[in-house]
Amino acid sequence: VRVEEEVLWAVASASGGDARFALNTLEILVEKVKALGKNVLKLSDITEEILRKPLIHDKEREYHYNLLSAFHKSMRGSDPDASIYWLARLLKSGEDPEVVARRIIACAAEDVGLADPLALVVAVSALLAYQALGSPEGDLALALATLYNALSAKSNSSYLALKSAEALIEKTGSLEVPLHLRNPETKLMEKLGYGKNYLYPHDFEEGFITQNYLPEEVKDIVFYHPKDKGKEAEFKERLKRLWSGKKG
């Protein structure tokens, strides 16, 4: 079968530099004209569908993780356009929408955090909405949650606080729970001092009273460092006021 030059140019243009795609496409086209009893492959024999390069997405290999990574980082980076682009790429490529929803939830918890706690509610609601609606209507819920993450103020203070606490526990092991924080479920426990001198916060103004809640060995440590972003800025001011500047 002879291939006209216009066909080669069309295939080369559609391949975007992917030699394997170009060769496979030519093979398909040649087999097509052979089946029709022709000996020349002309531009008129090509359909747009044949030249449409499939979106790359291998769920078991690197490209799968690259797309999810780009999606998450775009939301974290507050770029709504990039976030929607990668969302569309994932959905068009056949990614499981629930996998996408879980990444949206992870971003809401890790990157938006306490700067806008509602982001986590929106993200989880998007997953539930998708499960109820399916595609294509459910895709809109994923788009809404994606944009909410991208447009929200950001804080990773929750993530950092957890990692800091985990690191300390690795060093100190299982420190004892202070006696005043233990429940005196039996008379013996009560005699041993369980619950003694515990101050019930609701008995005090603002539902707060200063007392120690950590093991004695680490009672002055601070894991959580709030940021001056979004809703968290309000939390920070309240924390500083309640604890007289010791926290926040």
Give a written overview of the molecule:
- The longest helix is centred in the first third of the chain and has 17 residues.
- The termini are far apart.
- With 248 residues, this protein is mainly α.
- The protein is elongated.
- Helix 4 packs antiparallel against helix 5, helix 4 crosses helix 6 and helix 7 packs antiparallel against helix 8.
- Strands 1-2 form a two-stranded parallel ribbon.
- The model has no long low-confidence stretch (mean pLDDT 90).
- It has three domains: 50 residues; 90 residues, Up-down Bundle (Zinc Finger, Delta Prime, domain 3), CATH 1.20.272; 86 residues, Orthogonal Bundle (post-AAA+ oligomerization domain-like).
- The chain has eleven helices and two strands; from the N terminus they run E-H-H-E-H-H-H-H-H-H-H-H-H.
Q: What global shape is seen?
A: elongated
In the CATH scheme, the class of the largest domain would be Mainly Alpha
- The main sheet orders its strands as 1-2
Strand content: under 5%
What is the CATH architecture annotation of the largest domain? Answer: Up-down Bundle
Q: What is the averaged pLDDT score? A: 90
Taken together, the total number of domains comes to: 3
> What's the total count of β strands?
2
Q: What order do the SSEs take from the amino end to the carboxyl end, as H and E?
A: EHHEHHHHHHHHH
Number of helices: 11
Rg over C-alpha atoms, rounded to the nearest angstrom: 29 Å
Q: For the report, how would you describe the main beta sheet?
A: 2 strands, parallel
CATH topology of the largest domain: Zinc Finger, Delta Prime, domain 3
- Uncertain stretches of 5 or more adjacent residues: none
* Head-to-tail CA distance between termini: 77 Å
Structural class, judged by helices and strands? mainly alpha
Question: What percentage of residues falls in helices of 4 or more residues?
Answer: 55-70%
